[in-house]
Design brief:
This protein is an alpha+beta fold. It contains 2 helices and 7 strands; from the N terminus they run αβββαββββ. The protein has one domain: Immunoglobulin-like (Sandwich), CATH 2.60.40.680. A 4-stranded antiparallel sheet has the order 3-5-1-7, with no helix packed on it. 18% of the residues lie in helices and 40% in strands.
Length: 153
Amino acid sequence: MKKLLLTLALAAVFSTAAWAERAQSPRFVPLEVQLDSPEPVAAWQFELEDRQAATKVVGVESGGHPAFRTAPYYDRTAVAQGDTSRIVVADYSLADTDQLPSGRIRLATLHLMVRGEPDFELRLITATTPDGGAIDASISLAETSTDPKERSP
């Protein structure tokens, strides 16, 4: 009888542990970082941190505007090592003012591996005009489709 109770207790513990592990299975989420700017943007920098450390950045791609067509600057080594619950991303453009984006701009798409529920803190460090002037802009996050054709411009 004791063996049966012990076996049932162990089965319950392992069953609960297996369920908890499945509940924490990673999911992959593309997350857009968007800037609302009343002026043409020549340079920008933001910081994203997951205060729960439930997230790892596994990739970063450009926002898609021709003035910022290449991938932005970030710590590629940290991303490759999977050590990125916090990331700083930046980019700049030397394009003429009339070729720079304004309004709602997708700065970057972050590809995340998420386990659990993240608690994001997004902070705009800077957004500047071509002459280096600060722009009073706002920044936001938007979970997006995994299909690049369905992403915002």
